[in-house]
Amino acid sequence: MTETRQLYASFDPARYHREYYSEVDPEVQFFLQQLHQTFAEGLTDCPGREVLDIGCGPTITAVLSASRWADTITMADLVPANREAVMEWLKEWEDQLDWSPHLKYVAALEGGGVTPSQLADRIRRKVNRVLPADVLQEEPLGAAVPNRHVVMQSV
Would you tell me how many other CB atoms lie within 10 Å of the CB of residue 155? Predict the structure, then answer.
């Protein structure tokens, strides 16, 4: 596990974003469409509306559509730099990663009832925690974190 931690200690969220998320390419479109469909139609029998995005990386893409359905969202990742990148976006820091193409795409999937800015605000309201997570541990989030109704992992 020490080797894994050392590998991720040098992880660069901005470089990752530039490489894989600078635009909404066909692969990302497919991913976003599937999540939109799942949260719009597929969770009608779910007893609660709490979402955990474990292994979120430095991205907010998995929670874009989840924010329409969920009451609360917890995001979690092993890499401190990834958690910091998410927090910077949530707090609207000046040098945050740019998710505007993704926000625009998902806002359009929702049928025009929400603007990209409103979608961003909704996500910021719904994400209640950004936590460290180690999926190789018996309690990846620690014992104090309750179970969630929906768990997503998109690595």
Answer: 10
Q: According to the model, what pLDDT value does residue 146 have?
A: 66
pLDDT (tens digit, 9 = 90+) per residue, 84-97? 999 999 999 988 99
CA angle centred on 75, ends 91 and 135, rounded to 5°:
145
Q: Dihedral (C-alpha) 95, 53, 74, 46: value to the nearest 10 degrees?
A: 140
**Dist. CA 78–CA 84, nearest whole Å:** 11
**What is the amino acid identity at position 21?**
Y
Tell me which residue of 111, 106, 109 sits closest to 123, measured CA to CA: 106
Coil, strand or helix at 129 = strand
- The pLDDT tens digits of the residues spanning 105-117 come to 999 999 878 999 9
For each of the domains in the chain, give its residue range(s) and CATH number, in order of start.
13-152 (3.40.50.150)
Torsion of CA 26, 32, 33, 39, to 10 degrees: 170
What whole-number distance in Å separates Cα of residue 91 and Cα of residue 126? 13
Task: Using alpha carbons, select from 144, 129, 155 the residue that is nearest to residue 50.
Answer: 129
